[in-house]
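HOLO CASE FILE
Compound: NDP
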Amino acid sequence: MTKRLTTTAGAPIADNQNSLTAGPRGPVLLQDYQLIEKLAHQNRERIPERVVHAKGWGAYGTLKITGDISAYTRAKVLQPGTETPMLARFSTVAGELGAADHERDVRGFALKFYTEEGNWDMVGNNTPVFFLRDPYKFPDFIHTQKRHPKTNLRSATAMWDYWSLSPEALHQVTILMSDRGLPKTPMHMNGYGSHTYSLWNEAGERFWVKFHFKTMQGHEFYTNREAEEIIGKTREGYQEALFNAIEEGNFPRWKFMVQIMPEKDAEKTPYNPFDLTKVWPHADYPLIEVGEMVLDRNPENYFAEIEQAAFSPSNIVPGIGFSPDKVLQARIFSYADAHRYRLGTHYEALPVNAPKCPVHHYHKDGQMNFFGHRHGSNDAYYEPNSFGGPAEDPSVAEPPLRISGDADRYNHREGNDDYSQPRALHDLMDDDQRARLYMNTAESMQGVPEEIIERALVHYDRISKAYGDGIRAARAKLAAGG
Ligand code: NDP
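Model generated. Tokens follow.
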């Protein structure tokens, strides 16, 4: 039977075709509150889009733990045999909500695991590193990816000006300009926690950890030319690919792996293991297989479940901890803050964000509090109280994070080796991969003033003379029209 159409207040609507007007040729009446409600809702159908990672694609699935890392962590979600429902959202970084999917860009790889001890969000990227190591530079860097204030166009000059003055970015830029900078679909890329986090076990021992999700579909990519052709036909290639694969039962999978570093090693590695521009070489800290993630269900409502999905690195659970990674610490603040702004105070209570375990807190009131108190007693609205309200549980206390140092503004560009790791990456590429890397880099430099390009090339030469010369040769080829 057809459901009866109602107002938002539930009153039945008799006519959803014709406004209430003073005669067939007359104006509408202010009392047509049903028309007003419809127009008012239309005006409010958008919320602020994410400043970064606005364009995204997502699906639900499961994380299954098949390995055993219980020696390192007490996290229930990571215990052998555990299956945890989850949500994934993939995204590009720079483009706005309507941007084309097949643009060369870093991809967001955000996961929310609805664990029995709260939500664990792993808000990573498809790259193991990032463009910066000090969060002070985050807004500056993002400005270079967004539109110029006057032209309202993206600016290659801004990007290369910033990168050429920030050699720590060139590891990530190398990945961006390589085949991994333009995956065919979100299913054909890895995900990385990127930051160093920590795990801690029942005995209170802490281990540093890197999270990896390795695509089981294989790495596939498009060249810039192929992507241009696709964008000419559809701007929604990722949405189509992911949505259709899941509808057709071709569920994408990733192997979940970790690298583990004993706590004390962090004092002796030649690189800072908490530096977001660095990886931990596999030879030093081999990958350990932990489980498998599968995506097998599309959301029923994109806006409610993907646009309103709120991932934040601040969401950890007992057995998982942070690290001294400076950028991680800034993101712990800024992601939750972005959602408070974008979605509102109680964004965690929205169905897609709500934990699947009991939630008991004393945050009170505020816009859109639709959940009320759930503690059993109306008198328990502060803490401590004598009315049986929820109380802390010392058994989940994290071991102390052993860090010390003098508060100062330490120069993050001094004394860092920004060249060895991009060199290792450059060296592991074959000739064809390198040729594409050089050409993609050269193409992205088009229109940039020569002095900025020369400054960038100095850094490329430091990574490897072959790398710098490769870009020079690709630029010459472009200049010759090839
Ligand atoms: P390994 O040879 O053990 O690992 C190399 C890694 O590079 C593999 O994980 C591979 O991923 C990945 N890779 C291959 N091509 C690209 C590309 N175009 N962009 C990004 N990653 C790519 O060496 P190391 O561990 O010593 O690392 C060497 C370099 O590899 C690093 O400096 C870093 O640039 C890069 N890398 C290292 C990672 C790490 O965690 N150690 C992770 C990713 C990259 P896959 O296995 O999926 O093919």
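CASE NOTES: The CA atoms of residues 212 and 424 lie 19 Å apart. The chain has a mean pLDDT of 97.
CLOSED: yes
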